[in-house]
Amino acid sequence: MTSQTNPVLLDGKTLAAKIRGELKDRSIKLQKEKGKRPVLATILVGADPASATYVKMKGKACESCEMDSKKVELPDTTTTEQLLAVIDELNADDTIDGILLQHPVPSQIDERLCFDRILPEKDVDGVTTVGFGRISFGLPAYASCTPAGIMRLLAEYNIPLQGKRAVVVGRSAILGRPLAALLLEANATVTVCHSRTTNLPDVVREGDLVFACVGKPNFIKGDWLKEGVVLVDAGYNEGNVGDADYESCYPKSSFITPVPGGVGPMTIAMLLSHTVAEAERKVSAR
Ligand code: NAP
């Protein structure tokens, strides 16, 4: 059986553009009234082309919102100690509001140690264990940007979460786990699935909301879904393909994210949003 009407598309592209417009206004206001321009520092280690593109996109996004980005580029021979020293400098620099360390770093570097060196208040990408712990306890912190973007998207469409069954497929530190924590905080009943979950289609079928966070193209199938499900696909695979099989999932859904144009654009919007919020917080604390 399929839904009688077409699902509503959760349009992250339009929402992200609206958020970025609001951030630009806030940033201009902050400069005019307080002489403060929000600054995001980005650290790129090595020459991975995809990472370089992501960092460039983030820099351009800052420009479009009247924010500054300070780009730090380090060679792929960088050691953990050298990277920690760079992070220490950025932590100590009062002009910097947020720090983004682009993942992944070269394998000789202890990435977790470096992420955790970022001061919690400058952790606008939501990558520190302190930030994750605070989010898990329902305390204020900048959440990991993709989960934060998903929550913002659901809120925009007034999708109820309280008492709903939410099934998150994937448990990564940047996506599945923090998303589960945020959904729990919103009073959903949350199930987190992973590669060792047995009878995955049956578990997914229990979800009023299903979140595809797997990293495998077209992985979630339409016949795994409850009729009228809210399907959020965070996946982004080569060829603009999500983690859910859009064609078979579409007729089962009441709301669905397109790929691209659903979750993806929300991630950078949240990074900018956290940076502006931190700049405002800092200025008001002076
Ligand atoms: P990840 O670190 O590789 O984690 C993938 C998760 O999926 C793991 O928890 C893994 O389980 C689980 N998984 C793998 N195979 C499975 C299976 N057969 N059944 C059930 N679970 C399975 O990936 P990620 O970084 O979270 O990214 C996930 C997806 O989101 C990717 O498509 C990525 O491109 C996308 N993403 C998008 C954005 C954005 O800005 N839009 C940001 C981040 C990620 P185990 O823990 O058991 O290994």
From TrEMBL:
Domain Tetrahydrofolate dehydrogenase/cyclohydrolase NAD(P)-binding: 144-282
Biological process terms in GO annotation: L-histidine biosynthetic process; methionine biosynthetic process; purine nucleotide biosynthetic process; tetrahydrofolate interconversion
Positions bound to NADP(+): G170, R171, S172
Pathway: One-carbon metabolism; tetrahydrofolate interconversion
Tetrahydrofolate dehydrogenase/cyclohydrolase catalytic domain sequence ranges: 10-125
Molecular function (Gene Ontology), one example: methenyltetrahydrofolate cyclohydrolase activity
Known catalytic reactions: (6R)-5,10-methenyltetrahydrofolate + H2O = (6R)-10-formyltetrahydrofolate + H(+); (6R)-5,10-methylene-5,6,7,8-tetrahydrofolate + NADP(+) = (6R)-5,10-methenyltetrahydrofolate + NADPH
Parts of the chain that traverse the membrane: none
Listed InterPro entries: Aminoacid_DH-like_N_sf (IPR046346), NAD(P)-bd_dom_sf (IPR036291), THF_DH/CycHdrlase (IPR000672), THF_DH/CycHdrlase_cat_dom (IPR020630), THF_DH/CycHdrlase_CS (IPR020867), THF_DH/CycHdrlase_NAD-bd_dom (IPR020631)
Family, similarity comment: Belongs to the tetrahydrofolate dehydrogenase/cyclohydrolase family.
Protein name: Bifunctional protein FolD
Source organism of this protein record: Leptonema illini DSM 21528
